[in-house]
Amino acid sequence: MTDFSPEALSAIGPKEFTQLVKSTPDSKITEVMGSERRTKILDEVFNRMPTLFRADRAGDTATVIHWIITGGPEGASDTYETVIEKATCTVTSTPVRDPKLAMTMDGLTFLKIVSGTGNPVMLFMTGKIKTKGDVTLATSIPKLFDIPKG
């Protein structure tokens, strides 16, 4: 599968998504994530987040995370809010709570992180991911979700 589109994403599972991100040139992902199609792609990814959440690993974690995805049409950014509390995960594209952690990254970096094809530590160290707030929380996010290994 080489079609990087919202329609393609809605028809595949996490492992296929990882392969799609891995096999699609970065330039193509950047192009798509800079277009009007990005909202549907981001919505698809964030809508899956609660289903990939590992409540058994969350313990008493109670936190709010803002994901700020840059590089949209005309320089736009999109912010999504993930709330983890009482062993549940909810996501919204209209943040209302103060975050304990805010992470800013472009669309390509975001898709590499959520597909497991990018190294979050390396992306942070090279400035591709910028954080504000609890950086320690950022390191624990991968264990809270079933993220395919790229």
UniProtKB/TrEMBL annotation:
Q: Which residues form a coiled coil?
A: none
The residues forming the signal peptide are none
* InterPro entries the record matches: SCP2_sterol-bd_dom, SCP2_sterol-bd_dom_sf
SCP2 domain location is 58-146
Q: At the top level of its lineage, which domain of life is listed? A: Bacteria
Identify this protein by name: SCP-2 sterol transfer family protein
Species, as recorded: Actinoplanes italicus
